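Q: Make up one entry.
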Amino acid sequence: MNPSFETLNRIIAQRRSVFPESYTNQEIPREALAAILASANYAPTHKLTEPWRFVVFRSAGKTRFGAELARLYRASVTDAQFLQKKYDSILEKAARANVMVALNISYHPDKVPQWEEVAAMGCAVQNMALTAESLQIGAYWSSPAMIGELGPFLELGANEQCLGIFYMGYHEAAPREARRGPIEEKVRWIEE
């Protein structure tokens, strides 16, 4: 087979969500982050709306972002619902991640339906995940309930929305097999 296919197929098959508890303290170079973000820009986008918008949090910025997520969690639950463990986990994820990227979308309702923009964003994030995998950087897309309240903190405009947080870090997680059912159970062929 074609070497490009072999490489791409291996990266796709190896990609897994890697969570902050597996991250090391090794800093991700800015050049690697730039490459990961640049790969998002090549996602398919109907009418070239390019709806993806990213806010990258590192160092003290990441600490502030984690504190805001924890604050929003605390504000969203009653005292009886509040779980100290969950609150601490939010702060711990921010502390363990080397980088947190707010995954924001800019809708263009005059050009394309909202679902197409969300699909384009999903493709952009998949490009990021595959690029991170190729650089041996762990990553995962988190979408906690608090993202709906991040507009003011992220300074989002009227047609913008946060769709999640992309956590990244070098890691010590062991490779693991994909848990997927056979593709044959998900495809129908019509040839006549």
Observations:
- Residues 19-173 form a domain with the NADH Oxidase fold (CATH 3.40.109.10).
- The chain has a mean pLDDT of 97.
- The first strand starts at residue 52 and ends at 57.
- The radius of gyration is 18 Å.
